[in-house]
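Archive transcription. Copying these from loose printouts into the bound notebook so they stop getting lost. Printout 1 of 2:
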Amino acid sequence: MKAVLALIAVVLSLFVLETARQGVSITHFAVGETPATRYARAGADGPSVVVAHGFAGSQQMMQGYALPLAQAGYQVYAFEFLGHGRHKQPMSGDVNALDGTTRLLVAQTSAVIDSIDAGGVPVALLGHSMATDILARVAQERDDIGPLVLVSAFSQVIDANTPPDLLLITGSWEPGLRDFAQEAVQMVDPAATTGETVTAGDLRRRAVIAPFSEHVSVLHSRAGRAEAVAWLDGFYGRQSRPMILPTGTAILGLLIGIVLLFGPIAKRLPQQQIAVSEMDRKHLAVLLLAPMVLTPLIAVPLSPSFLPVLVADYLGLHLLIFGGIQLALLWHWRHPIGPFGWSALALLLLWCALFGFLLDRYAANFLPTPQRIWIMGVLALGAVPYMLADMVLSAQSAFWRRLLVRLAFLISLGIAVALDFEGLFFLIMIAPVLVLFYAVFGTMGRQVARRSGAATSGTALGLVLAWALGVSFPLFVGS
C-alpha cells in the first residue's frame, strides 16, 4: 500500500511540474562563459526579466519564479553567477570587499543585461538572497532598469530613493529579513505596514510576507510568485493571470515518493548473512565523543586550502579524520563492517542518480562540470570512510541512536567553526545539505545495509556525499 501511495505521489508531482513548463520554450545559451537560459512562450514579446539566484544556488532554483513569469508573457533570462552551478569560471576577489567579489558579480550581471535585446523597454530584475544586493547595485548604476523584485533581500544600497520601484518578498520564517523589508518600505513612508504599497512621486515600494516559508521554500511560495507577477504587470501596464502551481509541494512529493519507492525495490536484493554485534553505551559514547572532540582539534590547525571550492578541502579532511577515528575504534573492538555486494552497490548508486537527475531538472543543480570531477574525487577520500562508519553505527539502530550519530558530526563541525570562525564560516551552510542527505540518501542506504551490509551502503553513500558536496558549493579562488 505504501508503494502504491508513493507511486501516486510521484505521478501527480511530475504532472504538476511538467504542467508548469507546458507551453514555455526553454532555451540554453551562453553570455561569454556565463551559462544562461531563456524562458518564454512561443512568440512572446513581453518585457525582459533577468533572474538571479543566491549563494550556492543555480538557475534551476529560480524556476519557481521564471516559469510563471514566462507563462504571463514575459521573456525571462536566468543565469549562473561565477563559480555556481555549471559555470566553469570560479568566483574570485575579496568576498568581504565591495570592490572585490561583489564588483565582479555586478559586472557579470550587467553583461547579461547587455546581451538582451530589450527593445528600449526597461529591464526588470528579480533575485534571491545574495543576488538581491547585486541587483540593487546594478540598478543603481544603470538607467535602463525597471522594477525590482527582491526575495529574501538585504543590501546597504537600498535607501529612501533607490531603487525607485521595488517589491520585497520575504518568508514568514525569516524574521531578520522580514524586518529589513519592512524598514525598506518605511524609508518611503514611516507609517507603512506589510502588504501596503506606498508611493512618493515616482517611487513605488511594497513588502509582502510569503506564508509558511523559509529561505529556500520562499522560492516556490504561490503567494510570493503571484505578488511578483502582479508587481511587474503594474509597472508595465499589463494584465496577466498565469496559473501558479504548487511546484514546491510537487518537488517535495516527487523526492519523497522516489525515496519511498526504493524500499520495495531494495527488498528484492538477496539477503546476505550480516553479523551484528551488540554495542554497549560506553563504546557508543567513545565512538561519538572521541571523533567529535579530536577531529576539529587535529584538522583546524592543518587548515588545508588547495581545492578551488570554499571550505571543501577542510571538509574533506574533517570527514576523513572523523570517519577514520570511528573505523579504527570499530576495528579495535572487533565490530563487523559486514559483507560487500556489487549488485546492491549498483542499485543504490543508480537510484541515487535518478534522484539527482530529478533534483537537477526541477529544483537545484546536481550535475557537475568537468572542473568539479577531481574535487569530488578528493572529497570521496574522506566521505567514504565517514559514511562507512556512519552506516555501521546507524544501519541497524533505533532512531535516537541514529540521531546521536549524526549530531556528533554536526557538533564537531560547529566546534571547528568556533575555533576558526573567519576561515570556516561557510561550514555553517553545509549543515542543511547534510541534514537533507541524512534524511534522503541515509534512509535509502539503511534499506540496502539491512540486506547487503554496511560496507555496501557506506561505500555508495560516501561517493554520493562527495558528489553532493562537490556540486553544492561555489568554485572559488582567492584574490
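Printout 2 of 2:
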Amino acid sequence: MGRIVRVLAVLLPALLPGLTAPTAAEPAPLPWTGSWESAPSGTAAALPGAAVRNVVHLSVGGAAVRVRLSNRLGTRPLRLGAVTVALRAAGPDAVPGTLHTATFHGAPEVTVPPGADTVTDPVPLSVPARADLLVTVYTPDDSGPATYHRTALQTSYLARAGAGRAADEDGGAYPATTSRWYYVTGVDVRGIAAGSVVAFGDSLTDGNGSTPDTNRRWPDRLARRLSEHRLGVLNAGLAGNRLLRDGTGPSALARLDADALDRAGARVLVVFEGINDIKGTPPASDPAAFADAYRALVVRAHARGIRVVGVTLTPYRGYPAWTAAGEAVRQGVNAFIRTGGVFDAVADADAAVRDPADPERILLAYDPGDHLHFDDAGMAAVADAVHHALRHLLRPAPPGHPDVTVPAGPTAPRLPSAAG
C-alpha cells in the first residue's frame, strides 16, 4: 500500500494538473540604478590599519544599496577587511540603527586583485533621495597604492586605528579628515528609479570652483531638477581629463565603459570633454580629431541603448594657457557639436556662461577667479543648459503613469539636436 501511495503522489500532479494548487510566480526583482559615482583619478599612499569613512551624496533613493569599490589603479592585491554603509547624521556620525556591514558573496571581507573592481552584496538599507551615505572601508594591510578620487570637494573622515571601527555608529574614533574618496567608486540603489544620467567630463564636471561640502557641482544641481522624473545622476567628472589622449587618468575614450556605459541603469550620457586637449601640452589643434572622438563615443553609447547629449566647450580667456589659436579650435569644435548632427541633443553651456560683452570670457558672476571653472552660480547655469537639452530626450509616459521614460539609442526614433 505504501508503494502505491508513493507512485500516485508522483503521477497525479502530471495526470490531473487541474487538481493541484498553482505555484505563484516569483515577482521580478526591482532593477538597480546608479545613484552616486566617483571616477578613479589616481593613487595615494596606502592606509594600513586605518578605516576611511567616505561621505557620499546620493541622487535617487531606493530600498537597498550596493557599493562599488576599486583597486583599478593599484599594483598589489587589496584586502578589504570590512565595509559598512549607513545614513549620515552629521560629521562622521551614523543615524542610529542604519549601519549595516556589507558582504561579498556572503563573506565579510574580500581581496581585490590589482586592476580590478568589486561590488558588495545587496545591503537592506532604505535610503531617501539626496541623502548623505557613510561608506566606511577598513584596510588592515599595506596593500600598496590606494585607488582614490582626488577632487572630492567633500570632507570625509579617518580612524587611524581602524580595527573594529568600521561598525561604529558614533564617529568619535574618526578625528582626522580627508578631502579624497578612497576606494569607493559608486553606490547603486534598488527601487523604482527610472534610470540614470551619466555626467562625463573633466574638472568642470568634477566640480572645481564650487563650494566644498555643499553639493553644488552642476551634476548635483541637475539631480535636483530631475528628481520628479526619478532619474539618478552620476558624476563621472575627472579633473585634468582629456578627450583625445591620457592626462589625469585615461582618456575619455579609454575610460568610457568603466566610468559610464557599464554603470547600472545608465540611460543618457552627457559629454562635456575637450577643453583640456585645447589648452594642454601639446595643444590639440584639429577640430576634426574632436569630431572623430565624439562620433566614436556616440556610436559606443548607442550600441548600448544609451542616448548622448553633447555639451559645448566654455570660454577660458584670462586663464594662463589661453591662446588665440586655442580659441579658434574651441569655436570650431563648438560648431561641430551644435550642427554636426552626431548628438541626440545639445546643451549649449558656452552660450549659458559666456559674457555677452566679451564672449571669449566667462561671465564675471560665474567666474571663481581663474577664468576657467565655474562658481556655484555658474554651475547652476550649466545644469540649466543640460536640463533644457534633456527635455528633448525625456518623453512623458502614458496618462496616469508617473514615470518619465528615456528612449533607447539605436532603436528609438531619431531626435533632432537642440540646435535644430
